[in-house]
Amino acid sequence: MTDLESIPLSALQHWRVCPRQCALIHIAGVWEENRFTAEGRLMHERVHEASDEIRDGVRTCRGLQLISKRLGLVGQADAVEFRQDAPPFPVEYKHGRPKKDNADALQLCAQALCLEEMLGVTIPAGALFYGATRRRQDVPFTPQLRAEVETAVTAIRALLAQGQIPPPTPNDRCRGCSLAQYCKTYPPVADYLRQALAEAPDQTP
Description:
Low-confidence stretches: none
Mean pLDDT: 83
Strand content: 15-25%
CATH architecture: Alpha-Beta Complex
Number of strands: 7
Shape: globular
Largest sheet: 7 strands, mixed
Order of helices and strands: EHHHEEEEHEEHH
CATH topology: Lambda Exonuclease, Chain A
Structural class: alpha/beta
Radius of gyration: 19 Å
């Protein structure tokens, strides 16, 4: 189970997409790859393995470790660009296309909040790079998006503290979810076993 004081940045995207998926991953430790998750993992690995570079006055640092003690978040930035006389600019790489919801933007904004705390700066924006379109999508870190990060972290921490798997909430994202098979079978068995163990008589001599 994920440490309540060290929530992975990826959990914000998992939670925004589906609280049940977030719980299966970060409470039950369930994970299964499919084509989509494998493609995403390989893209992140390629980005993180690339060397830092300076080009046209922009220094790009890859795989930068991030932490926010205030929010209790930990993770890694795919890339952070540093320009002279400008705030850091985080860039998150995604293998697919832009999504209808703001799950990716939420994760990117959380990275910015970590950087702000670590470096003592204000970061107004970042970008999402989508492999399917080969284009960047700028993301302004508005007060609303920042507030949503705070709300999400609070909700995730409460979910983890409770230790329960929420019921399924089917949506369009279920078809591409690598945990679909566990989503259908996990709760009844796990809840039954948990209850049975809790109600079992103490056999301690």
